[in-house]
C-alpha cells in the first residue's frame, strides 16, 4: 500500500526539486506539499499522512511549532526535520521535541529517501492482514494485552483510521480529524478491513474510557440505525401501487396478538404447556436490542426469540418487536415445543 509523505518548506524551488527527485519512489510513497506549518496542518486534516518532512524556519508557523502540534494531535506520525541552520543544540531540541530524524542542508535526495523508506517500514513491523473483521481482531488485541498502533483501511469505502493500544487497552482512535470514541465508532462499523500493526504506542494518556465491547455494540447499533434510515429514504422515492381498502383497514392490536399466542400454544401443546402469562414489557427492550445488535455484528442472524432462565419460579421467552413480548413459563415446561410453535 502506497504511503503519503508530506513535505513542508517555504522554499518552493526546494519542494519542487524534492517532488521531482522522489518520482522514482512513487511505487512506495506519494508526495504532498505544504508551504508552511499552517498549510501542513490543513493537509493533515484532509489527508491520511504517514510521515512529515519539514523545514524549521518558515513564516506563520515554524517547524518546531508544527512538530509540537503533530506530537499532540497526530502522535503516530513521525517527523523528519530538515534545516539549513544545523547546530548540535538545534538537533537535540528537534529530537527532544519528538522528531525521529534530522538532516542538514545541503543533502542528497537519495539519503533523505532512504531515511523516509526506513521510517515508513516501521508502520508494518508487526505484520499486515487483509480482509479481516475489525471487531473480532481488535477484541483479540484486548485479550492478548497488546501494545501497538493499528492502521486500518475500510474495504468498502477506502477510508482509513488508526487505533492506539497499550497493554490491551484502547487508548485513542482517529479517522481524519475525528478523535476518541466518535472515531472508534466509525472504525468499529467497518465490516472488512486491511490493517497493519506497528509495535509500540506513542500515547500515554487514555482518551477513551468505555470498554471495547460497549464501543463495538454501540458502533453496530449506529450502523444499523444509519442503514435503516437510508433504506427508509430509498423506499420513499419508490412509487408503489395504491393499497387496497381492506388491506388498509388492518391495524396492529397488541391485545389480539397476545391472545393469539396463548390460543396457539394451548391448542397445539395443551393446557398443561406450562404457559403462565403473556404480556408486553418495555423494560426488556434495551436488553433485547443489545442481543440483536450483537447477533448482527457477529453474523449470527436476526434475533427471533430468546429463552431466559433466571433461576426463579418462572422462566421467560422473549419475542422482539416494537415492544418486547414476554411469555412467563413454568421452568418445567416443554420449552423446545413452545419455541417451535412460536417459530411456525
Task: Give short descriptive properties of this protein.
single chain, 344 residues, alpha/beta, Rossmann fold, Beta-Lactamase, 3 domains, 12 helices, 40% helix
Topology record:
Elements: E1 3-8, H1 12-21, E2 29-34, H2 37-46, E3 51-55, H3 63-73, E4 79-83, H4 88-96, E5 101-104, H5 109-121, E6 128-132, H6 134-143, E7 148-154, E8 160-166, E9 169-175, E10 178-179, H7 180-188, E11 193-199, H8 212-236, H9 245-248, H10 254-269, E12 275-280, H11 285-297, E13 306-308, E14 315-319, E15 325-329, H12 335-343
Parallel strand pairs: 1-2, 1-3, 3-4, 4-5
Antiparallel strand pairs: 6-11, 7-8, 7-11, 8-9, 9-10, 12-15, 13-14, 14-15
Question: How does this structure look, described?
Answer:
It is a single chain. Helix 2 (37-46) packs parallel to helix 3 (63-73), helix 7 (180-188) crosses helix 8 and helix 8 (212-236) crosses helix 11 (285-297). The strands form 3 sheets. This protein has a 6-stranded antiparallel sheet with strand order 6-11-7-8-9-10. The protein has a 5-stranded parallel sheet with strand order 2-1-3-4-5, sandwiched between helices. A 4-stranded antiparallel sheet has the order 12-15-14-13, with helices on one face. It folds into 3 domains: 3-123, 3-Layer(aba) Sandwich (Rossmann fold), CATH 3.40.50; 128-213, no CATH class; 248-343, Beta-Lactamase. It is built from 12 helices and 15 strands. Mean pLDDT is 83; it is low at 239-254. The chain is elongated, with a radius of gyration of 29 Å. Helix content is 40%, strand content 23%. The chain is α/β, with parallel strands linked by helices and 344 residues long.
Amino acid at each position: 500500500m502506497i504511503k503519503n509523505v508530506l513535505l513542508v518548506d517555504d522554499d518552493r524551488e526546494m519542494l519542487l526539486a524534492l517532488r521531482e527527485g522522489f518520482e522514482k519512489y512513487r511505487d512506495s510513497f506519494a508526495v504532498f506539499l505544504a508551504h508552511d506549518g499552517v498549510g501542513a496542518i490543513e493537509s493533515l486534516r484532509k489527508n491520511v499522512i504517514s510521515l512529515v518532512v519539514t523545514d524549521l524556519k518558515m513564516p506563520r508557523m515554524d517547524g518546531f511549532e508544527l512538530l509540537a502540534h503533530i506530537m499532540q494531535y497526530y502522535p503516530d506520525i513521525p517527523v523528519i526535520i530538515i534545516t539549513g541552520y544545523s547546530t548540535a543544540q538545534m538537533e537535540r531540541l528537534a529530537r527532544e521535541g519528538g522528531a525521529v530524524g534530522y538532516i542538514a542542508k545541503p543533502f542528497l535526495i537519495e539519503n533523505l529517501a532512504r531515511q523516509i523508506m526506513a521510517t515508513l517500514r516501521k508502520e508494518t513491523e508487526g505484520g499486515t492482514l487483509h480482509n479481516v473483521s475489525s471487531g473480532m481482531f481488535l477484541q483479540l488485541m484486548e485479550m492478548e494485552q497488546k501494545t501497538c498502533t493499528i492502521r486500518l483501511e475500510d474495504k468498502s469505502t477506502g477510508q482509513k483510521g488508526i487505533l492506539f493500544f497499550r497493554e490491551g487497552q484502547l487508548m485513542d482512535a482517529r479517522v481524519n480529524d475525528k478523535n476518541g470514541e466518535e472515531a472508534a465508532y466509525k472504525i468499529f462499523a467497518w465490516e472488512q478491513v486491511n490493517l497493519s500493526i506497528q509495535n509500540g504506542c506513542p500515547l500515554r494518556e487514555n482518551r477513551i474510557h468505555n470498554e471495547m465491547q460497549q464501543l463495538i455494540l454501540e458502533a453496530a447499533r449506529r450502523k444499523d440505525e444509519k442503514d435503516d434510515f437510508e433504506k427508509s429514504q430509498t423506499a420513499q422515492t419508490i412509487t408503489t401501487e395504491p393499497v387496497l381498502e381492506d388491506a388498509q383497514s388492518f391495524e396492529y392490536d397488541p391485545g389480539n396478538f397476545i391472545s393469539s399466542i396463548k390460543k396457539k400454544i394451548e391448542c397445539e401443546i395443551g393446557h398443561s404447556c406450562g404457559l403462565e402469562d403473556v404480556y408486553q414489557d418495555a423494560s426488556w427492550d434495551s436488553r433485547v436490542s443489545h442481543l440483536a445488535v450483537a447477533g448482527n455484528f457477529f453474523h449470527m442472524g436476526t434475533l427471533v426469540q430468546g429463552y431466559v432462565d433466571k433461576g426463579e419460579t418462572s422462566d421467560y421467552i422473549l419475542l422482539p418487536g416494537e415492544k418486547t413480548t414476554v411469555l412467563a413459563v413454568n421452568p418445567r415446561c416443554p420449552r423446545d415445543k413452545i419455541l417451535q410453535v412460536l417459530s411456525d
